[in-house]
UniProtKB/TrEMBL annotation:
It comes from Micromonas pusilla (Picoplanktonic green alga). PANTHER family: 5'-NUCLEOTIDASE (PTHR11575:SF24), 5'-NUCLEOTIDASE-RELATED (PTHR11575). This is 5'-Nucleotidase C-terminal domain-containing protein. It holds the Pfam family 5_nucleotid_C. Residues 59-133 form the 5'-Nucleotidase C-terminal domain. GO terms for molecular function: hydrolase activity. SUPFAM superfamilies: 5'-nucleotidase (syn. UDP-sugar hydrolase), C-terminal domain. GO terms for biological process: nucleotide catabolic process. InterPro entries: 5'-Nucleotdase_C, 5'-Nucleotdase_C_sf, 5_nucleotidase/apyrase.
Amino acid sequence: TVRRPGSGVVVSARMYSLRGYRTDPGIDADIWRRSEVLRGLNQHTLSLHEHAARLGLTPLSSRDARVAQCSLGTLFATILRDECRADVCLYNSGGIRGNVNYGGEPLTYGDLVAEVPFENNIVTLEMYGSELAA
């Protein structure tokens, strides 16, 4: 319970365990049927290794992306830079979450979702190099 002094506003919340509740089999079946497209999409193989090889970024890895440069992060930034026709791309490494060495294994859409699970905005703007260096 949170009370804001002088405002008369009181907000209360309580947690309830849902473990004792059974799911509805009809709803479960409907969810399973409707998510079939997503399950298939998650298995779709991406051609990221081809792009990485062309740029000399093999083997692909997202290991230690939060503390050091990794080939998958460099690949993402390079693709974004090129697609946005920009001179520079800054990519938040905190958004790369897989921490996986892919080697020669194919990457799937499901792998991509595991690597970058957050929706992020892409922003382009004009600025001077001196502003970027600051």
